[in-house]
Amino acid sequence: MKDRYYIGIDLGGTNLKIALFDSTCRIIGRQVLPTEIFAQPKSLITAIVSSVNAIMAGRRLNTSAILGIGIGLPGPVDVTQGVVHFFPNIPGWKEVPLRSILEEKLGLPVFVDNDANLMCLAEYKAGAARGSTNAVCLTLGTGVGGGLIIDGRLFRGSSFAAGEIGHVPINEHGPACNCGGVACLESYIGNRRIAHRVRMIFKKDIPLEDLSRMARRGNAKAAAIWKDVGRKLGVALVGVVNLLNPDRIVIGGGVANAGSVLFDAVSETILMQAMVVQAKKVRVTKAQLGSDAGMIGAAFLVKEETDKRKTAR
Amino acid sequence: MKDRYYIGIDLGGTNLKIALFDSTCRIIGRQVLPTEIFAQPKSLITAIVSSVNAIMAGRRLNTSAILGIGIGLPGPVDVTQGVVHFFPNIPGWKEVPLRSILEEKLGLPVFVDNDANLMCLAEYKAGAARGSTNAVCLTLGTGVGGGLIIDGRLFRGSSFAAGEIGHVPINEHGPACNCGGVACLESYIGNRRIAHRVRMIFKKDIPLEDLSRMARRGNAKAAAIWKDVGRKLGVALVGVVNLLNPDRIVIGGGVANAGSVLFDAVSETILMQAMVVQAKKVRVTKAQLGSDAGMIGAAFLVKEETDKRKTAR
After folding, report:
1. Out of A288-292, B36-40, B223-227, B288-292, which region has the weakest mean confidence (pLDDT)?
2. A271 is a domain residue
3. Whether residues B150 and B97 fall in one domain
4. Which residue has the higher pLDDT, B141 or B202?
5. In whole angstroms, what is the distance from residue B286 CA to residue B296 CA?
6. Is B132 helix (H, G, I), strand (E, B) or coil?
């Protein structure tokens, strides 16, 4: 049998990333475009189509060699219908039937899911959650996203919206969150909030990568900021750990680069405050797949879905 | 084929309840004993054995007519090994291999789980969560217990300890909880805490059933207490709803009798503060099976497990 490939796409607020994967879901070619140049859904869809065609042409592949295309999307989607409800950070998208549009234009099966779910699937299949049974994956950035592996499968919830760890409240009263909630984890530890604390404490702007470096080198003020982030994240995770009794928590995204000062505060909070049986069972670890996780998860989504169809036949 | 039966047992801090079920998991006979008279695990186990024998004798059934015995237990258990780790409210139990002891004494298959899980299974199979796909079940009493139905199955977590909604923190700082946690939901809305508030406000003790009646009849102070309980419960459930995107939340236990003042506060908090997609999907409803839920869940546990074995053969 000839070689078969998957295409994985990660549509972010900043970049549109596309990769070609071999049959074991390893990246063998990639392409990145800035998202912001595509003002309309229509032009973004056109860009996706020409990128897919270009990446296939680069390897002289035609559609018969491609098993399918997976796409991770930065907002709520109807996974079954393949419809984008909206994107919080990309204007113009509202109830767009992205899957059927792309399937028609490309002549290939298309599968969609939100980016946090696909990051989680990727870490479970090929990263830091491999070998676990129940895993909680987080990405810490401007937003705090999450995905759940439950009994060895990606859990999507009753309207494909499960996993929103960033919107678990950690106080009864607190800052209003963009989501409409109150005192959501994200409103305490989202990038913007950390940057705000940095300005309060250092009286100037410091990029968060530099703040991480300062903490690693022993700057006490920088370490205190990350420790507080870890403790607040820990409080939300105590609830998640007591509720779901996972064996693995995977933390990714730029903020995860703060290193041990952050991770130690998270683990200590869980160990101190979660129930004994649950706390003893769970291991907190850094994500392994970095910014490729979305594309890798998209490829695994295609693999899972097409394998399922094979079995069903 | 002759009729087959299940036996469902609910071991609580107060009562040991045993029922005989027909093949559709309907109760056809029952027996209740006070738990406290059995000071040792040994005497409690003897009481279980003689109750099971008595309930079978009452119908002139021998073991060949019984498919198995299910037991709901008031503490953490190893479901696979059938071992009781301990009971918070019944002294003397520590790593007791209850299943193998009972299987030897009774000559019947025995299945164990914790009581909150079995309450949840019962409401899912025959009560207020019937027809849902992802359900969160709570019992409000001295403790706040919980169970989860995930994608149509009871979810137990990586060490059979999932579902502890009572130990989701609702604040970063707050009262110390018996579990070792801080600001757990239970430490705000457990029966004892509500009774304490009653004493503060009314300057006397009022049984919670009376407080519920007073609220239903329009007593503003009583209503305010229940409203606050509902709001705090709502905050914990906002986190659960954003995380798990369930389609049903079932609330049982004595406190659930407070009625609409409590349920309205819960629903309002979810509607106001949970994310739109998740909030729109979920329905909050009162448990239907009352204090029989534990036994009914135990019978369904036997049914599920023995059906599984049949399929596997």
Report:
1. B36-40
2. yes
3. no
4. B202
5. 17
6. coil
Could you give phi then psi for residue A145, rounded to 5 degrees?
-100, 165
Q: How many CB pairs under 8 A join A and B?
A: 166
State whether B171 and A172 contact (CB < 8 Å).
Answer: yes
Judge contact between B134 and B244, C-beta under 8 A.
yes
Mean pLDDT of B185-207: 96
Instruction: Kindly state whether residue A110 falls inside one of the protein's structural domains.
Output: yes
Verify that B138 and B111 share a domain, yes or no.
no
Task: Tell me how far CA of residue A127 lies from CA of A50, A116, A287, B54, in angstroms.
Answer: 30, 14, 7, 55
Q: Is-contact B41 B61, C-beta < 8 A?
A: no
Q: Do B158 and A246 touch (CB under 8 A)?
A: yes
* Optimal mutation site among A153, A156, A242, A248, interface B, most CBs of chain B within 10 A: A242
User: Is-contact A34 A305, C-beta < 8 A?
Assistant: no
Note down the domain range covering A109.
5-118+292-312
Q: Give the minimum alpha-carbon distance from A33 to chain B in angstroms, rounded to a whole number.
A: 30
Measured between beta carbons, the chain B residues lying within 8 angstroms of A169 are 170, 235, 238-239, 273
Q: What is the pLDDT of residues A250-290, one digit of tens each?
A: 999 988 888 899 999 999 999 999 999 999 999 999 999 99
Model pTM score: 0.95
> With an 8 Å Cβ cutoff, are A161 and B277 in contact?
yes
Contact of B99 with B79, CB cutoff 8 Å: no
Please tell me the distance in Å from A171's CA to the nearest CA on chain B. Answer: 4
Q: Which residues of B touch A282 (CB under 8 A)?
A: 158
Contact residues, chain A, for B133 at CB < 8 Å: 158
Q: Which residues of B touch A155 (CB under 8 A)?
A: 150-151, 244
B1 band by pLDDT with thresholds 50, 70 and 90: low
Flag whether A71 is in a domain.
yes
A202 shares a domain with A111: no
For the purposes of burial, counting CB atoms within 10 Å of the CB of A312, is it exposed (0-12), middle (13-18) or buried (19 or more)?
exposed
Tell me the CATH number at A308: 3.30.420.40
Q: Which residue of B has its CA nearest to A181?
A: B273
A126 inside domain: no
Kindly provide the ipTM of the predicted complex, given to two decimals.
0.95
Q: Which among B76, B168, B281 is the nearest to A159, CB-wise?
A: B281
Please give the Cα distance from B233 to B127 (Å, whole number): 22
- Positions in chain A short of pLDDT 70: 1, 313
Contact B160 A245 (CB under 8 A): yes
- Tell me if B233 sits within 8 A of B266, measured CB to CB: yes
B252-281 pLDDT, tens per residue?
Answer: 998 888 889 999 999 999 999 999 999 999
For residue A135, give how far its alpha carbon lies from the nearest alpha carbon of chain B (Å).
Answer: 10
A210: left (phi over 0), alpha (psi -120 to 50) or beta: alpha
Residue of A nearest to B275 (CA): A179
pLDDT tens column, A7-57:
999 998 789 999 999 999 999 999 999 887 877 899 999 999 999 999 999
Whether B160 contacts B148, CB under 8 Å: no
Whether A73 and A154 map to the same domain: the answer is no
Best residue in B186, B228, B244 for a mutation probing chain A (most A CBs within 10 Å):
B244
Strand partners, B284: B249
**Of A153, A243, A280, Cβ closest to residue B164:** A243
